[in-house]
Amino acid sequence: MTTLGQPLSIETTPIDGLLVVRLQLHGDARGWFKEHWQREKMVALGLPDFGPVQQNVSFNAPVGVTRGLHAEPWDKYVSVANGRAFGAWVDLREGDGFGTTFHLELAPDVAVFVPRGVANGFQTLEENVNYMYLVNDHWSPEARYALVNVADPTADVPWPIPLAEAVVSDKDLGHPMLDAVTPVRARET
Amino acid sequence: MTTLGQPLSIETTPIDGLLVVRLQLHGDARGWFKEHWQREKMVALGLPDFGPVQQNVSFNAPVGVTRGLHAEPWDKYVSVANGRAFGAWVDLREGDGFGTTFHLELAPDVAVFVPRGVANGFQTLEENVNYMYLVNDHWSPEARYALVNVADPTADVPWPIPLAEAVVSDKDLGHPMLDAVTPVRARET
Ligand SMILES: Cc1cn([C@H]2C[C@H](O)[C@@H](COP(=O)(O)OP(=O)(O)O[C@H]3O[C@H](CO)[C@@H](O)[C@H](O)[C@H]3O)O2)c(=O)[nH]c1=O
Ligand SMILES: Cc1cn([C@H]2C[C@H](O)[C@@H](COP(=O)(O)OP(=O)(O)O[C@H]3O[C@H](CO)[C@@H](O)[C@H](O)[C@H]3O)O2)c(=O)[nH]c1=O
């Protein structure tokens, strides 16, 4: 049994509440094993006790599938099950942080906690990438998201694959640029 | 947008409480999207409201990785993120059902709810399969499992790849045969 990669740790980012979770992989002749989400250990390290009620998976066949940027009205815990993807986030919450961006490469040993109001997107860097995430509210077709265009020039996300070669849904091509986005207000409790 | 496969449904099996969940995949040019676990819809269809606190992933590099058969002291919701695996279950709970077995092929459009006390195992049918599952209690190195050997002649699981060619951990090779297993007692509430 070998330990691949680092011990479990959680890092902050320039976006308030957006957290990078480094995961430990335990390797052996079969492959590896990981605790992808572990409430008790991760809450002790600073992950919110977010209480997921849904797990989604998207399968992305071609290289360069680009999905986003979506700020749903719930928190998300995102990663890839296999392969590599470029992840990007833009803060759409009202206040000083509005428009702050962050990006990193997603692989099986890293996950990201995305608080509600922060727009989430990714681009696949290999074929056949399964992207998966946990959320703490149920999606419905009527759910209203805050959205920003993947090509927004202010956020200026450095997508590794030029958007002209990327595979983007018609819906995602229609999202507004940052200067037309209404900032997401803090939730009334 | 095409719909691949069947609408969401839940089926019972010969093992009491072991449920097969058929998942809907929404296909498009990018690949597909699925709700892998959706508390509200699935509870309405009969899935227990099991309250996961941990998500695990195992990566299985060679064909024929065989893991099991483990009856942990918590419920599990298991499937593959990608690829195909043969899943097998043996009821280790005391009572008339003790020793009842069930098997099916796991693929991204099927998940299985495994109640505590039922031993879980699988064998990969392709290279590079990511197997993932949600559980409703935290694992610890001291956790005591009920275990039964993958080669047990009574359960007689029809593994597609002969065990002589399978990749099995030393730990899993050491588990007892069914006639030496102490049945798992119902939990005191
Ligand atoms: C988000 C969601 C979608 N759907 C359905 C609606 C569509 O038929 C199909 C795909 O939905 P789309 O809206 O195109 O999904 P997509 O562009 O991949 O975006 C989703 O998945 C992305 C990750 O793949 C997330 O980053 C987005 O926030 C999320 O909205 O799945 C569900 O049935 N349940 C869901 O939770
Ligand atoms: C189950 C579990 C294991 N581990 C560690 C202990 C070891 O260093 C490494 C692999 O553990 P093993 O006991 O060999 O895991 P494995 O044989 O794959 O069995 C586990 O994973 C199987 C699926 O891959 C499940 O069907 C089993 O019930 C589960 O116990 O991961 C964790 O850190 N957390 C866990 O939750």
Detailed description of the structure:
Chains A, B: Belongs to the dTDP-4-dehydrorhamnose reductase family. Chains A, B: Keywords: NADP, Oxidoreductase. Chains A, B: Catalyzes the reduction of dTDP-6-deoxy-L-lyxo-4-hexulose to yield dTDP-L-rhamnose. Chains A, B: This is dTDP-4-dehydrorhamnose reductase. Chains A, B: It comes from Tessaracoccus palaemonis. 2 copies of one chain form a homodimer. Chain A is mainly β. Chain A has a domain of 130 residues: Jelly Rolls (Sandwich). Helices cover 5% and strands 41% of the residues of chain A. Chain A has 2 helices and 14 strands; from the N terminus they run βββββαβββββββββα. A 6-stranded antiparallel sheet of chain A has the order 2-3-11-8-13-6, with no helix packed on it. In chain A, strand 2 and strand 3 form a beta hairpin. The longest helix of chain A has 6 residues. The mean pLDDT of chain A is 95. Chains A and B meet through strand 5, helix 1, strand 6 and strand 13 of A and strand 5, helix 1, strand 6 and strand 13 of B.
